[in-house]
Amino acid sequence: MTSGRSFHDGEDEDQIIISQIFSGQKELFRLLIQRHERAVYGMGMSFFHNTEDASDFTQDVFFKAFRNLSQFEGQSRFSTWLYRIAYNTAINSAARKKEYQSLAEEDISIEVDTPERKFLRNLACDAIQEAIKELPKRFRVCIDLYFFYDRSHKEIEIITGYPINTIKSHVFRAKKLLRKKLDSLAE
User: Fold this and answer.
1) 20-41 pLDDT, tens per residue?
2) Is residue 45 part of a domain?
3) Domain count of the fold of the chain
4) pTM assigned to the model
5) CA distance 135 to 108
């Protein structure tokens, strides 16, 4: 990696690693795993709710990505391509196992300085988690990818196969439903 370039968002670095893998340095795939394992594992936890299944899922996703890396054409970010594989793997597996659970539904432990703040924050987190649980699955998936995985509408379209306008509508409607639910709890 002596190109002299600076990496602004890590995607340039992914592209360099991939080109080196294509030139025969297949062992460098471990670098892609290190860079994206946490996000893929998080998606696995959203679908399977336990560490063993999420770990198996993560291994399966990276195995599929390695096996199909030659199909990556660079028309999207590598992470988008990888999340598409992860999403499809999870949907297919979850259909046989369990329902999708948003990352926002995970137990959130927050370090705070006073018991009162901790109590209020826990109440707010519980309210958000409950409100998200009530959203339709298609809304939860779009909200997760948009807010927790920081994916653009275009990337969510690539990952889920939903049209962009549908994604925008799902995110908008989910935010509206969440706001309404949280406002009613605040009263």
Assistant:
1) 999 988 888 999 999 999 999 9
2) yes
3) 2
4) 0.59
5) 19
